[in-house]
Amino acid sequence: MPGTCVIGLQWGDEAKGKLVDLLCPQFDIVVRFLGGANAGHTVVVGDQTYKLHHVPSGILNPGVMNVVTPGVVINPATILKEIDALLARDIEVGANLMLSDRAHIVCPWHIAEDQVMNGQPVQGESIGTTLRGIGPCYRDKVGRSHAIRLGDLYSADFRERIESIADVKRRILSGLSGQEGGDFGLDPAKIYEEYCGYAERLHKYVDDTTAFLLDAVDAGKRLLFEGAQGALLDVDHGTFPFVTSSNSSGVGVASGSGVPARSIDRMIGVAKAYTTRVGGGPFPTEQDNEVGQRIRDLGNEYGTTTGRPRRCGWFDAVAVRYTARLSGIDCLALMMMDVLSQLPEIQICTAYELDGEQIDRFPSQVGDLRRVKPVYETWPGWESDVTGVRKLADFPAGARRYLDRISELVGKPIDVVSVGPDREQTIFD
Ligand code: IMP
Q1: Which of 16, 13, 63 is nearest to 426 (CA)?
Q2: From the alpha carbon of 233, which atom of ligand 1 is closest?
Q3: How far is the CA of 111 from the centre of ligand 1 (A)?
Q4: What spacing in Å lies between the alpha carbon of 129 and ligand 1's midpoint?
Q5: What is the pLDDT of residues 388-407, one digit of tens each?
Q6: Which of 19, 166, 195, 423 could form a disulfide with 188 if both were Cys (CB 3.0 to 4.6 A apart)?
Q7: Which residues are catalytic, by number?
Q8: 278 CA closest ligand 1 atom index
Q9: Which pLDDT tens digit goes with each residue over 157-187?
Q10: What whole-number distance in Å separates Cα of residue 123 and Cα of residue 252?
Q11: Considering the entire predicted model, what is its pTM?
């Protein structure tokens, strides 16, 4: 029963959606196990581009089952919009989609809290969340008293829950924002009615996904786990507090999905040939200059979910070596290799200098990460178009050396290289 997992090794946006879409035909089930509408997975099929937030990328492959598990936080309005957009383009969304009744749902107060909290800097800087209510929803999940799960939409006391939670939330929001007596758009009767409408439409997708997946494992089905965000945004192991609110590295697969880690026998780590980051927080190899702007333009580095320009910089082998080990990665998929083709010179960060000492471990404290100076190797660019390359041997010598060096520094083989958005622009070793 081989299970495979695709994990982002940087700060998200590593083009995981493209890889998952390509791998889908080899699998029976695609599983999404963390995050929510903060994720934006772009998949290009022919001349069509699809942007998915909650729905697993397997939805574009007929015959594949798509499962959203307890570790995901679902915004019912957003997922219904996503489903409607797929249906409008004649993509089947019916018995091929299952949503966990254990998944927590994002409510209007979570979005209001995200907005209020995001205006308040943490350690001198705003986290710069996607404002999708993700952190507040996970906070309520862990806090338990004010949480609502998808299955609760169908319980007899749902109206009462909405009324009592909305009341508490209005008081919390007044305190947080300093706006005494504000109602923050939280009218319980309206929210109840709205969410009952969502409940009715989502009903056919809601089920116990944990039981379904455990049965699938026993039956020898092939499972593909689709990571979201990236390992450096992991709440326990990333650049805390500038992280998302779930375990986005390989460690989160079992807890988020309910499938034991030992059922997964292949972990693929996805990284870009350079680095990007959206939102606040340290980024040692950031190029806040013309080079960064060039990478942003060439790679069209603007957020799928928020449209924000992404911060861009050089490949950081210290960070990726750390997240590859943390996530138990077997091999790497290196994406966006074509973007570097036009640069006359390319740098790779091989170590950090911290307080005059050279280190090769990834610091656990953001204060240290802010102070490190990257130690770079400088490489001549290959300066030729690689978008038509279909075999590793056909890459220009400079590009091949670059791939070899990254593999050596990270300590993992590179099994996949992507040279453009289309399915065909992918080289499997
Ligand atoms: P949140 O997940 O909306 O709370 O945002 C927390 C941090 O994670 C912010 O810096 C976001 O920009 C970042 N983030 C969240 N989701 C993604 C993603 O899918 N790609 C890249 N960055 C993300």
Answers
A1: 16
A2: 8
A3: 14
A4: 6
A5: 999 999 999 999 999 999 99
A6: 166
A7: 13, 41
A8: 12
A9: 999 999 999 999 999 999 988 888 778 889 9
A10: 26
A11: 0.96
